[in-house]
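User: My advisor, Dr. K., asked me to get a structural model of this assembly before our group meeting. I'm new to this, so sorry if the format is off. These are the inputs:
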Amino acid sequence: MSSLFEIRGTPSPRMSTALQVAGILALLSLWAGVCATGWIGPRILPSPLAVLRTFPALHFQDAMVRNLLYSCFLNFAGYAEAVAVCLPLGFLIGMFPIFNGMFSKPVDSIRYLPLTALTGLFMEWFGIENTMKIQFLAFGISVYLLPVVVQRVREVPVLYQQTAFTLGASKWQMFRTVFFPHVRSRIVLDIQVLVAISWTYIIVAEMMNNTGGIGGLLYGSARAGRTDKTFALLAVIILVGYVQDKIFLGLDMLLNPHKYS
Amino acid sequence: MAAQSVQMVNTELPDILELREVRQVYKDPNGKEHVVIEGLNLLIEDLPGKGEFVVILGSSGCGKSHILRYLSGLQTPTSGDVLIDGRPRLSTDYVGMVFQAYSSLEHYTVLENVALGLKYRGVAKKDRETKAMAMIEKVGLKGHEHKFAKAPTLSGGQLQRVAIARSLAYDSKILLMDEPFGALDIETRGKMQDLLAEIWTSIEPTIIMVTHAIDEAVYLGDRIYVMGGSPSNIIKEFVSPLPLVRNRQMKRESAFIHMVQEIEDFMMSL
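Assistant: The format is fine. Below is the predicted structure of the whole assembly, which you can bring to the meeting.
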């Protein structure tokens, strides 16, 4: 037990699991305790039990699973497009001075764009259906993903490049055996972090012409003053995020076994 | 002051590596030129039946690693010629190099790392793995071939063994080594020196090694060049009195001790 209070102490795996469960229970107890005092009304802060009781209604009346799958589809489509665009562009900018000189400054600067202010433009360009939502999401992700890819390419050790060169690697072989595997070993977990951020943009995208999705449901619940439903939906997003993290970790272990050997 | 350079003797033997009148100039941020190497000449011949083991000694910053960078193609001198096999070095002349830092690609296994040069040459997978395995056995890494080539899965000494095997696996007759044992502890360093001496006598590549350690240079090299001066150059040549096949016992012999002392005295006098 004393190790729990050591600076940078490392509890056993069993203890870590117990601590995680204890942390969640402590937060739920605190939440329930605050609600039980009656100091805060249920419309402002519904109790954990009240939130739990909304799930049947969310499922049968609001088609929560269908809406969740719709949001996941938008997220996946937006991400697939962003990765498909950012990986090749990032490699080009990171590897070759000509592209680096031309585009590295605009890539760095584009992060300052207030994305939510661009919703009108995206509606103008892509209409108000799924295409617009996916493009908005892909753009929102790319703004962060592209500089990360460029940075990861720059981080490839020069020594690896020199080793491959002295062994006779062509530029393409250098890319395939040095740059791509090294960047891949870092970028999977970078994407995992960015996927978490992308939920913010999904909500914004779904609020534009509400055609469903978790964001649409959240918007509707908030407008109807159903904070219990809002809390339930937020809990679902957190749960989906947790599952996403596990999927990305599995993907990283599959693609980059050397990190886990 | 520019130092008097050593005159290289060109015999009837075929030339394998040569630097001719090499000059290296760098510009500082103000545009002022600094000549760091001037009139550097180095000639290594292909001895019959064995490759020569040449060691370059010198203080930090004297430019000794430049020699390896020129020969490997990692750097082009400001002026002068780099020749391989008696003709100007081509962009397709690749020479394997072992660096001081661990340079194995950590996303590949030991086997994949050692086979890398063969893969770049388009050798079929089965053939390159057979060749790589033979080299892995030669450097004493059998049983580790499917481990990823990274620390702490492999020790520092094992990672340098991977680098040596990788540089020799594609039948390279030349091996460049830039302070390869500089990061190793004394015990591992000693074992690696023995391994290198063994490889040299069994495979007989031409080896050019840069090091700070005089005893290492005398133990391994059969020709030792000392670099120094400003601009830098090769200013002294020592020829090892030790027999071709080296062993640890020789380090206790008077010929070895005397030569170490002689080189140390020379370097201290600079």
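One thing worth pointing out at the meeting: Chain A is about 75% helix and 0% strand.

User: Perfect, thanks a lot.
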